[in-house]
Amino acid sequence: MTEDGPAHPCVGGERLSATFYDRPVLQVAQDLLGCVIEHDRVTVRLVEVEAYDGERDPGSHAYRGRTPRTAVMFGPPGGLYVYFTYGMHYCANLVCGPPGRASAVLLRAGAVVAGEDLARARRTAATHRTIAARDLARGPARLATCLAFGRAQNGVLTTAPQSPVTVRRGAGPIGTVAVGPRVGVSGPGGDGAEFPWRYWLEGDRHVSAYRPGGFRRTRT
DNA sequence: CTGCCGATCGCCT
DNA sequence: GGCGATCGGCAGC
Question: Which nucleotide is nearest to A64 (CA to C1')?
Answer without folding.
Answer: B12
